[in-house]
Specification:
The chain is an all-alpha fold and about 70 residues long. It has one domain. Helices cover about 60% and strands about 0% of the residues. The model has no long low-confidence stretch (mean pLDDT about 80).
Length: about 70
């Protein structure tokens, strides 16, 4: 278990959130978008999720955007 020293890193670092609320909120938004578009195939769902995740980054890579859009 070479990761054991990092297990409670959040407790010592004040910049790391103590809960996963913001992460769960982000996933619920993605689930809502997918639920609205119920007829999507698995491949289309992957494209929607990729575009949502890329849109939330600071600077999405143009080649990746061209690939998924």
């Amino acid at each position: 278990m070479h990761h054991k020293p990092y297990l409670f890193t959040y407790a010592a670092n004040t910049h790391i959130a103590k809960t996963t609320n913001s992460l769960e909120g982000r996933f619920s938004h993605i689930n809502e978008v997918i639920a609205i578009h119920r007829g999507l195939s698995k491949q289309q769902k992957k494209k929607v999720i990729n575009s949502l995740l890329l849109a939330s980054t600071i600077a999405p890579n143009k080649t990746i955007l061209d690939e998924i859009l």
